[in-house]
């Protein structure tokens, strides 16, 4: 099995560069850290560029199974190298360099519901939303300008492999979302003001693009003006609002009720 010992190794240097957003975009690659995340990436082998495994882990069953399946792309590294490419306090001793594909607005799957994320900032929230979208059967996610980097380490960890399953695209202006309306979608925004009860989602028969907004400021007014409908989740206690990840999960699963009955 191949090994990397030097800080000057080009593959190691590539991994270090991918800790910065600009190099992730330039190379269309990101780092997936942690045993389960790498196992999920291995299930989609086209996404794997290479895998770094810490030398004291290679004989553990789950690690050795990854090596067996990806022997040509696996490299043993000493702990001193692993520590520098790990983003976690307690590293599990495995990091993969994964490829990602860029999608355009015309690549949307116009046969299914769509999720629109407007300037979501917290990486943990974003990763949770992407994982929930994947679980709820949504295959296309549109991120507006100002949404945090979906390939940052914390988002990747929170998404738990779902980045490999979703078609994620980015838009610079809200007007480009009109293509959804032209293809029979209703754009429905989550809002606390002038909104209907979210249970209305299960009664709408057209395709839906559900919009979740920024944690502090909500959905941009320009996007609200494009929306066909606004919905809200009732609050029964003293809390002013729900976490956007929680709200997104409730709304996405409410959409599924149209196909369950």
Describe the structure.
The model has no long low-confidence stretch (mean pLDDT 95). The protein is elongated. The strands form two sheets. A seven-stranded parallel sheet has the order 7-6-5-10-8-11-9. The protein is an alpha/beta fold. Helix 3 (35-42) runs parallel beside helix 4, helix 6 (123-135) packs parallel to helix 7 (153-159) and helix 6 (123-135) packs parallel to helix 10. It has two domains: 10-99, Ribosomal protein L30/S12 (60s Ribosomal Protein L30, Chain: A); 105-260, Alpha/beta knot. Helix content is 33%, strand content 21%. The chain has helices at residues 10-17, 21-27, 35-42, 61-69, 79-85, 123-135, 153-159, 178-182, 221-226, 244-260, and strands at 29-33, 48-54, 74-77, 94-99, 114-117, 140-144, 167-171, 185-190, 196-197, 207-212, 229-232. This is RNA methyltransferase, TrmH family. Residues 31-104 form the RNA 2-O ribose methyltransferase substrate binding domain. Keywords: Methyltransferase, Transferase.
